[in-house]
Fold SGNH hydrolase.
Amino acid sequence: MVVSFPKIALLASGLVSAVIASVTIANTNPLIHFHGRWDSSPGTWWAGSGLKLNVLGLKSLTLNLGSHTSSPLAAVGVSVNYQPFFTVNVTQGSNVIPLGNLPKIGNTVVRLNVEGWQNNRINLQNIVLNTGALLIPYVPSKLAFTFIGDSLSAGQFLPLGVDQAWPFLTGEFFKAEHTVIAQPGAALSDIVSYGNQHGLSYEFFRTEDDGYYYTTDHNYTTPWDFSRDHPQPTHLVIHIGANDNAQAVPQASFIQTYVAFIKRLRTLYPHQPIFVFTPWGWPNSDGSIGQYYPGAYQTVVSTIQAGGDKNIFLVDTTGWVTWADVFPTNQHPNVPGHAKIAANLEKVLTTWGLKPQRTWATPVLDL
Ligand SMILES: *[C@@H]1O[C@H](CO)[C@@H](O)[C@H](O)[C@H]1NC(C)=O
Ligand SMILES: *[C@@H]1O[C@H](CO)[C@@H](O)[C@H](O)[C@H]1NC(C)=O
């Protein structure tokens, strides 16, 4: 076999880099920007939880995941340098994350999150980068959304899960950090609903989503330490009630639970604007919309405002979602439906006075 000199050099350098230790980032490294909810293993709960990395000289990235990772796999959304998110299925063990074309010099921002409302656990052991890669700080956006909801916010039934859902899309539009604490089937009231042992008025304050009940390795919940949210949310958006209605929670009781929930949120978020969605309802093929809790959301908002808290706003979503915008089999928004909801919310928020950030707070410098 004839091997030309450059080929030998290439082969040699390949051998050398295989021999020279790559860069291992411990899961305790403070330069990993964790977002969403992670337990102490550390492992993710809730769709959308994940991490961000800013790396100089990045060429390769491997995630080593531990035994608390969902089996057989967890779908993870990955975005490199703010390009669209794509799915990588990861498993316990070693996972090479495809990065595409990277800048020759300069930094690379990798954003990664679990997509699913179930099978959404990644248990990070460490991250291995190429030799010469240097982890540098990720600076979070000045804007940070927390969204609270159920299946209509968690991206259930979407190919890319929460990454295609209106909360995530809205966060991206504003170049904001975003956390989605949403549980399909869950009510706001703390009742058993569609297999969830708790409602959001309880589970929102926990590290784990309601899936904990179906695991053998972590069959319990722990309080969430809200000081771990960095940055703290600047804006909150809540869309909930479909499952309270489905479980026949009376309107007066729902209102009472909702008002108490907002008051409890205020102990964490004293001055953040809170946006309360009215339901868009369940669109039917004949063009009608199945509505629930008429006037309840108005009552919640006016009750809070009457108590002197004016930093709460009703978002009337009537007409936002029609039959064409949902999957016919389950009446949940489809991919274009979620994009339409996001566009509507973006209009509401910009009209209200919120402007998208001009650039991401961690820019990509292709030198
Ligand atoms: C991820 O796994 C699911 C389930 O097996 C599969 O349907 C999907 O095509 C996979 N996606 C990718 C990007 O590998
Ligand atoms: C989790 O614990 C509860 C009792 O607290 C039990 O009913 C349930 O079956 C357990 N789940 C699993 C998957 O072991």
